[in-house]
Design a protein that fits this description.
Blueprint lengths: L3 E4 L2 E4 L4 E7 L5 E7 L6 E6 L6 E3 L7 E6 L4 E6 L8 E8 L9 E4 L3 E6 L1
Parallel strand pairs: 2-11
Antiparallel strand pairs: 1-3, 3-8, 4-5, 4-9, 5-6, 7-8, 9-10, 9-11
Length: 119
């Protein structure tokens, strides 16, 4: 069983930046970030393969967010730049055996961290 713990959320003004971290209790394979706004479904944000050679992004964040990983530290990051009010959501880290955009394909989830972007 792998446990995931997110950190780095907070309140930021529009056009600002935040970096989220996801620390895993063990080795993970594919990793991803999802987010869920109030009243909305959990949606895919970004994903990265085990070696970090391939990354995938939702169209809404492409060019603004960057996912990366530090395998010796079992940590995945999400650098978020040029934040917009519509990025406001609870951000969740996820880990699984394959890289997909589907919530149900990920086996392990963190507790979430709140990101609020003010206009």
């Amino acid at each position: 069983q792998v446990q995931l713990v997110e950190s780095g959320g907070g309140l930021v003004q529009a056009r600002g930046s935040l970096r989220l971290s996801c620390a895993a209790s063990g080795r993970t394979f594919s990793s991803a970030w999802f987010r869920q706004a109030p009243g909305g479904d959990r949606e895919f944000v970004a994903a990265i393969t085990w070696r970090g050679g391939n990354t995938y992004y939702a169209d809404s964040v492409k060019g603004r967010f960057t996912i990366s990983r530090d395998n010796p530290k079992n940590t995945v990051y999400l650098q978020m730049n040029s934040l917009k009010p519509e990025d406001t959501a609870v951000y969740y880290c996820a880990a699984g055996w394959m890289v997909t955009t589907r919530v149900n394909d990920y086996n392990y989830w963190g507790q979430g961290t709140q990101v609020t972007v003010s206009s």
